[in-house]
Write a structure and sequence with these properties.
The complex is a heterodimer of chains A (about 270) and B (about 60).
Chain A (H helix, E strand, L loop, with lengths): L2 H27 L2 H23 L5 H27 L4 H23 L21 E2 L12 E6 L2 E6 L8 H31 L3 H25 L6 H19 L10 H7 L2
Antiparallel strand pairs in A: 1-3, 2-3
Chain B lengths: L2 H15 L6 H29 L6
The chains are: A mainly alpha (about 270), B mainly alpha (about 60).
Amino acid sequence: MSLNLLLPFFSTAIMLVFTVYVLQRYFVRRAPHFLFWGVGLAMFGAGSFAEAYLSLAWNKWVFFSWYLFGAALNAGFIGHGTLLLLTRRKWVHVVTILLVAGSLYAGYLMLQVMPNLDEAVFTTDKPISEQYGSKVLEKGQTPPAGAQTITTNYRGEQVTVVRGLLPLGSPVRLTTPFFNIYGLLTLVGGAIWSAYLFWRKRVLPNRVIGNVLIAAGALSIGFASTLTRLGYGQLLYLGELIAAILMFAGFLMAARPQPSEEPQPARVALATE
Amino acid sequence: MDKVNRQEHLSALRQKSHMPQRSVFFEKIIPILLVVLGMIMAGLVVFAAGVILGIVRF
């Protein structure tokens, strides 16, 4: 059994447990940040599961799920949860509306591209992260081993293109950086800021460490996604697994209840008997 | 609980909710980690901005 199959399954399993844990907290406390975290984590898990599935067989709707939820939207939703946790200002509601509207638009663009997928390119011999996007070959550049190329007219010039599932210049691919930037700034930035605040006050060391782990986990997947965009998709699955482990560990550590500074009256009474 | 025991109890609780003093991990490693993580975040944001601006081709 190859790593391409195992790693996404492990990531999916971890994200499933993590998602259930967070959504349980939402149903108990009804705090919106838990809802957005839960939805974002579910998207991450859906993306991992889709990767595992696509290493065995093709299904265009599984690919839809992989790209829209796994590549585009999940970072923005998880990050938005952090923003909701850190601030109660009214402008956050505007950002919420923009995020939801942007997500629906990305979904619409993804639906638009589905009839134009180059399904003939698909192979289970490569991870989906190495074959999802068509890419223009620069002059002098050699295509990756086993890649299919075509020569076509793109933006008024003849170019050689490495064929991928998504056609060249698909508008949905332009939406991904917006969600990823937003997710990076809010999730990673928010975790670093929280860790710094607790560190500066020299309190709650578990929350300092927890937020450092969350930031490191989010950066792990961000870095792996960036390498994927540059054509090095082999590390995406490992990045996802590291992200899942670190973020879940960080969340558990940061959410650990702290002992109260004041002793309970009942315990005081018992201790004097 | 007499006064001494109560003070010891409070001190134990405080140690759990405050960082240990003179800890290399919290005094040196954590701040360095925060800076490094921030720099990596900035780099990734710049890259993503480059994609949006068309500087990084996809």
